[in-house]
Design goal:
Layout: H1 9-32, H2 44-47, E1 49-55, H3 70-79, E2 86-92, E3 95-103, H4 108-122, E4 131-135, H5 137-165, H6 168-196, H7 202-232, H8 238-270, H9 273-315, H10 322-327
Antiparallel strand pairs: 1-3, 1-4, 2-3
């Protein structure tokens, strides 16, 4: 079975546009939320504050018999004047026996008071598993600035590399595919931030940088095959060349993507709270990277080359044969 991706390229572009639009709408809504005021729900790394992780000690009899009631945790936080905190239950030994709280900067006394109140409400905590971290807002701004700068530099570097290795139009559409993958990943996390309260941290920036590398690698493989075929058969229609290039590299793209996704899914399921959403970002980005290399970067190149060919044909004036016929 061979794919004819260019026959339905309007469909692929419409699907991508709809997903990106949903993400942009979510980012606008998120920006208007008074407790977020950003396109994505920022984590502790960016806005500063205190992160507290408490895990119950299940070695004590009866301490973990009942599941943690997140509403009870919220009530305790509200009583401490921390009602706007981000609260999540975390898994420990296959059960949700821990709680993760992200809140404003707390003094040592405030942390102790909160921990004692929570312990009275949901059970005794294991001091070996408790974690308390503090991040200042200055460091958070520096992390965001550095991450955005790294993304910009990577885009510029990829554009220069693709321009030298291929041609400028190849580079432009490779960057368009990259923006496609980044926008969909960012939009997905914006939606998750509104619906599920998922926050982004410095690892999210790392995930975006990793996604750019994966997406470009897949696109380069297809572009290489397109360039080789054009050299051998320059008169062949560009749509046929691109379709063949995609079909010749399709098995490799699928196998590579599935192998990576299996590993990332394992990290998402069993890698713990810290790596879970990092893995989720990579899963979304790598999936979109494989999709965009085949259905976006390739079809856009076809559209552009066909457009150039049609302009060349239109610019050539037809030969007037009437005079020669009259002479004969």
């Amino acid at each position: 079975m061979k794919l004819s991706i260019n026959k339905s390229r309007s469909l692929w572009w419409t699907i991508s546009a709809a997903i990106i639009l949903a993400g942009i709408i979510s980012m606008v809504i998120s920006w208007q939320q008074p407790n977020i005021h950003a396109p994505l729900r920022p984590g502790l790394d960016f806005i500063g504050g205190t992160r507290l992780q408490f895990v119950r000690d299940c070695t004590k009899p009866g301490n973990c018999d009942k599941p943690i009631d997140i509403n009870a945790v919220r009530e305790v936080a509200k009583a401490q004047g921390l009602g706007d905190s981000s609260i999540q239950l975390i898994s420990e030994n296959g059960a949700e026996n821990g709680v993760l709280i992200r809140t404003k900067d707390l003094t040592v006394d405030q942390r102790t008071k909160l921990q004692n109140s929570l312990s009275e409400e949901i059970g005794v905590f294991d001091p070996q598993k408790n974690q308390i971290d503090s991040v200042g807002p200055t460091l958070g701004k520096e992390l965001l600035r550095s991450g955005l700068l790294a993304l910009i530099v990577s885009f510029i570097g990829i554009t220069i590399y693709m321009s030298f290795r291929f041609q400028l139009d190849y580079a432009v559409f490779a960057i368009v595919a990259l923006f496609h993958d980044i926008l969909i990943t960012v939009g997905a996390f914006s939606i998750l931030g509104l619906v599920a309260g998922i926050e982004v941290d410095s690892l999210f920036i790392v995930a975006l940088l990793t996604i750019t590398g994966f997406s470009v690698n897949d696109t380069v493989v297809i572009y290489d095959r397109i360039r080789e075929t054009i050299k051998i058969n320059p008169e062949r229609p560009i749509a046929e060349i691109v379709d063949d290039a995609v079909n010749q590299t399709l098995t490799r793209s699928i196998n590579t993507t599935l192998t990576v996704l299996l590993t990332l899914t394992s990290i998402f399921l069993f890698g713990g709270e810290t790596l879970r959403y990092f893995a989720l970002a990579l899963i979304i980005g790598f999936t979109m990277g494989a999709y965009s290399s085949i259905f976006i970067a390739s079809t856009l190149l076809t559209w552009w080359r066909e457009r150039d060919e049609s302009q060349v044909i239109e610019s050539v004036e037809p030969i007037d044969t009437s005079a020669s016929s009259q002479d004969s």
